[in-house]
Design brief:
Elements (H helix, E strand, L loop, with lengths): L1 H25 L22 H8 L6 H10 L4 E6 L2 E6 L2 H9 L4 E3 L3 H7 L9 H12 L5 H22 L4 E3 H18 L4 H18 L10 H28 L9 H7 L10 H32 L1 H16 L10 H4 L3 H14 L4 E6 L3 E3 L2 E3 L4 E5 H5 L39 H18 E5 L6 E2 L5 E2 L4 E6 L9 H17 L1
Parallel strand pairs: 2-8
Antiparallel strand pairs: 1-2, 3-5, 4-12, 5-8, 6-7, 9-12, 10-11
Helix pairs in contact: 5-10, 7-8, 7-17, 8-12, 9-10, 10-12, 12-15, 12-17, 13-15, 13-17
GO molecular function, one term: iron ion binding
Subcellular location: Membrane
InterPro entries: Cyt_P450, Cyt_P450_CS, Cyt_P450_E_grp-I, Cyt_P450_sf
């Protein structure tokens, strides 16, 4: 009897505790409460964060959503309490598309802790109208055929030098080196800067910053969020010094570099003649430089690993790149944007990598009014978590979704909302074309002349803040021998140079 009473008392207390959040957040909804999606709001204060973190720090991050499906069925929407707010997780393509494209009903709803780290004046913290204006001004520097064509040569130079250097270093952290490489590219585009000291300092602080983005907002020494806040403070100080220096050089008419993103942000005026403040300029730079190198570096690493793991896919992708090199006009050096866009099979490899890995597994929105989605009510003021990972691994859309299979894209166009590697709607990632260009150029040169030998193929994977091997893909880059077509201009140039040296020796 004592045992029964003890168990009953424990279950009763547990029921009361787990009902506190429901009572606190749902009681004010009145009749709308009956039409909420199924789910639970977890424990007081922490909500569902422990179960979320536990799943994403295990080898099976999808177990977090699986528990909701097991308990409540395939409803597609689930109520939770995460990142300090009552929220609705959305996991179906139709619902995701609705949330991402309905700007009259939904606005950005990122956790306040994330906004604090990325910037209150960045794209995730500003109004819809301000976002449209800044996006229009800044997207011109990272998208469109004209600017992308200008970047091809620079990206090629960085990639070729990087691969050549890594091949002589022995063991390297492949992901770490890739992040440095993509950061160098984005620094050139946004700040015309290649200062090693500045780049290393910025990239180091960005690494710390990202660990805090998905962490619990505990501002206590030793916790990831506290370290991330300190990293942001250092980033802001570095950018402020760069803005001050740029203003001083412009005042003295000493600027000789090409016009870059910082110039654009410093020159822009609204219809009333108002220019951006230093805080606004810095927050946009913090956001763009972070997003502009993290995703590209990680996807390049995963695409390389997938290609190495599947020799038949590697050979097919390599054959396409060899054909592109073979068909170059006589005398042409390097790639053109047109040739990059002819890499049809490689594009499928990249899309499949984006789908399987799902670099950004969730984005945040907030309902500006009561909205009906898939038959359920999302209350005004509640956050909406668009769970990309679920739609990318949906068995109804993708056969064997965990399998890496670029051929699944042959003649296949996914329905709206089922492929969202760069988000969707008006807030689609503005640098998506630049990211795919970087990835394509890197894989082009890697496939032709290199291979990666991992030091620890059994290394476990971590999923926060982003999916990666725990050892940052420790491995050795090896240069391979390529069969040279004697009709290629590169071969002829090499032969001419060798002949000239022979004549000099004679």
């Amino acid at each position: 009897m004592y045992f029964v009473l003890l168990v009953g008392g424990f279950l009763g207390v547990r029921w009361v505790i787990t009902s506190v959040n429901c009572w606190y957040y749902e009681r004010k909804l009145g009749k709308k409460r009956a039409n909420l999606p199924p789910g639970d709001l977890g424990w007081p204060f922490i909500g569902n964060m422990w179960s979320f973190l536990r799943a994403f720090k295990s080898s099976n991050p999808d177990s977090f959503i699986s528990t909701f499906i097991t308990r409540f069925g395939h409803t597609g929407l689930y109520k939770v309490l995460m990142f300090g707010s009552p929220s609705i997780i959305v996991t179906t393509p139709e619902a995701c598309r609705k949330v991402l494209t309905d700007d009259e009903s939904f606005k950005p709803g990122w956790p306040s802790s994330t906004v604090e780290l990325i910037g209150k004046k960045s794209f995730i913290g500003i109004s819809y109208e301000e976002h449209k204006r800044l996006r229009r001004l800044t997207a011109a520097a990272v998208n469109g055929p004209e600017v992308l064509s200008l970047y091809v040569k620079y990206i090629e130079e960085i990639v070729e030098k990087g691969l050549e250097k890594w091949a002589g270093l022995g063991e390297i952290e492949f992901l770490t080196e890739l992040r440095k490489l993509t950061f160098r590219i984005i620094m050139y585009i946004f700040l015309s800067s290649e200062s090693e000291q500045v780049m290393e300092a910025l990239e180091r602080e960005y690494t710390i910053l990202n660990y805090g983005v998905r962490a619990m907002a505990i501002n206590v020494p030793g916790f990831a969020y506290h370290k991330a806040l300190k990293a942001r403070k250092k980033l802001v100080a570095i950018f402020q010094s760069m803005v001050d220096e740029r203003r001083e050089r412009r005042r003295k008419n000493l600027s000789k570099h090409k016009k870059d993103m910082m110039d654009t942000l410093m020159d822009v005026e609204d219809e009333n003649g108002r220019r951006l403040t230093d805080e606004e300029i810095i927050d946009v730079l913090v956001m763009y430089l972070n997003a502009g190198h993290e995703s590209s570096g990680h996807i390049i690493m995963w695409a390389t690993l997938f290609l190495q793991k599947h020799p038949e896919i590697f050979d097919k992708a390599k054959a396409e790149q060899e054909t592109i090199v073979k068909n170059k006009p006589p005398g042409q050096k390097g790639l053109t944007l047109k040739e990059v866009r002819q890499m049809e099979y490689l594009s499928k490899v990249i899309d499949e990598t984006l789908r399987v890995v799902t670099f950004s597994f969730v984005v945040f929105r907030e309902a500006m009014k009561d909205v009906d989605v898939s038959g359920y009510t999302i209350p005004r003021g509640w956050k909406v978590l668009v769970w990309f990972r679920s739609v990318h691994h949906d068995t109804e859309t993708y056969l064997e979704p965990k399998k890496f299979d670029p051929s699944r894209w042959d003649g296949f166009t996914p329905k709206a909302g089922s492929f969202l590697p760069f988000g969707g709607g008006s807030r689609l990632c503005p640098g998506n074309d630049l990211a795919k260009l970087e990835i394509s150029i890197f894989l082009h040169y890697f496939l032709l002349d290199y291979k990666l030998e991992r030091c620890n193929t059994a290394c476990p994977v971590m999923y926060l803040p982003h999916c990666r091997p725990k050892d940052n893909c420790l491995g050795i880059i090896q240069k391979t021998s390529r069969i040279v077509d004697k009709n290629l201009p590169e071969f002829q140039e090499a032969m001419d140079a060798q002949e000239a040296l022979s004549r000099e020796g004679d």
